[in-house]
Amino acid sequence: MTGLDPRIADALARLPDYLGSHVIVSVTALALGLAISLPLAVMATRRPALRWPLLAFASLIQTIPGLALLALFYPLLLGISALTEAIFGKGFSALGFLPSVIALTLYSMLPVLRNTVTGILGIDPAVNQAALGVGMTPRQSLWMVELPLALPVIMAGIRTSAVWVIGTATLSTPVGQTSLGNYIFAGLQTQNWVSVLFGCVAAAVLALVVDQLLALMESGVGQRKRLRVAAGALGLALVLAAALIPACSRPPATYVVGAKTFTEQYILAALIQQRLQANGLSSSRRDGLGSTVIFEALAAGEIDVYVDYSGTIWANHMRRKETKSREAVLAEMGEWLRRQRGIELIGNLGFENAYALAMRRDRANELGIRTIDDLVRHAPQLAIGGDYEFFDRPEWAALRDAYGLRFRSQRQMDSTFMYGAVASGDVDVISAFSSDGRIARFDLLVLDDPKQALPPYDAVLLASPKRAADQDLRRALAPLIGRIDVGLMQQTNLRADRDQDKETPAQAARWLWEQIARNRAR
Predict the structure, then answer these.
(1) What pLDDT, on the 0 to 100 scale, is given for residue 367?
(2) pTM for the whole thing?
C-alpha cells in the first residue's frame, strides 16, 4: 500500500473486517427471513384469512425507517438479557449482531412473502386439479407441482430481499454491528468523503454481485438449466468464502474500544487502541455508537473502554439537574458509576468538551452578542441548529429554561454539517463542542454561560465492570491521564477536519501521542 493516499490505504486495511461482518449479518438475516417467510407464505395460500394480516404486517415493517427499526431492538434485547441473567444467571449480548439480525430479518420478509403468494396463486387452477386427479395428495402437489412452477417468481422475491438486506445492513453501525456502514458513518463525521464513497461503492458492488448471481440461478430455474443454477450457487459460495475466511481467521481481540459518532471520539478511540497495541494488548473497535447505546454497552461488558464526558453522565444518566463544581461532579460521578453500574472511572484526560452555543464571530459582533444572556433578546429572530441528540437532551432543556430561550426555528442535522451551516448563514446559532477544531476554522464565537446552566464536560476514561481492576489496561492508558489540554485536542481535531491534507483519525491520534510524549519528556 506504499504510495497510496492514506485514506484509501486505511479503507483497504479495514475492508476484510467490515466486509466479512457485513456478509455474516446479511446472510444470517436473509436465511432466517427465508426460513420464516416461505412457510408463512405457503400457509397464506391455503388460508385466505391469514393472507392479508401477514402481508399487511410485512408491509408495515417497510414503513419504519431502517435505522429506527435497528435502534428499537437494542433496548428491548438489553432488558430481556437483564431478565434472563436475573432468572437463569446468564445473559446475552444485546449489542450489534442480535438486534441487527432481528431487524434485517423483518426487513427481508415482504418480497419473499409477496412473491411466494403471487407465484403459487398465479398457477392455473387446472394444473392443480390435474395433479390431484392423478392421485397426488395436496402436500405432494405443493412440492412437486406448485413450488417448482412458482420458483422463478419466488427467486425474484429472494433477489429483491437480498439487495434490501445488504443495503439496510449499512445502517447497523450505530447499534454496534460492524459493517460497510462503518465507512459511511465515520466518513460523514470526519468529512472523509473517500471513506463515504468507499463504503457506498463496496455495499453497492456486493449487492450487485449477489443480485446477478441470484439472477443466474433464477434464469436457470426458469429455463430448467441445472448448470446455471449450480454456477450461481457456486458463485455465491465463493463470494461468501472470500468475505468470511479473512474475517473469521483473525483471533478475537482481548479489548473492545468504543467510540461515539463524532470526529474526536474516532481519534480518541484510535489513540486508546494504539496505546493498547503498543503495550502488547490486542484490541478491536466498535465505532459510531449513540450516547445511550455506548454507555449501556460498557455497563453490560460488551465494550471494555471508551471516553465519555462528565456532563453527559451527570445530566443524562444520573438525571442530575443542578450544576456543581468540576471536582464535585467528578467525585460524585465516579462514586455513582462504581456503585450503580460497576463502571470504573480510570481518570480525567485533562480537557473539557462542553456543549456550548456558538455563532459566527462577525454576526455576533453585528448583534452585540457575547453571552447567552445577550442572545435572549435576539433569539426570536434567529434559527438554531443542533446535532441529532441536542434538542432531546436535558442539557438543552436546562439551558432553554434557565435563560428563557425561544428561537424562530430549530433544525436538527448531522454534527458534521452544523459548522458549515452556521458559516454559510443557514442557521445563526449552533450547539458546538468546545474542543472542536472547527470553532477556530470557521472563526466562531463561543457564547459565555454566565448562569452556568450547563455542567462541566471533562473527558474521562471509563472501563467496564469486568475491566475495573485490570492493571494491564490501566498501565497502558496511564500516560494519557491529565495529558491532553483543550488546545491540543482542538489542534488534533482540526487535523482530521481540515480541507487540505486531511488526516485519518488514526493519523491524528498518532500525532496527538507524539505531542503527549514530547510534553512528558520536557
Answers:
(1) 94
(2) 0.78
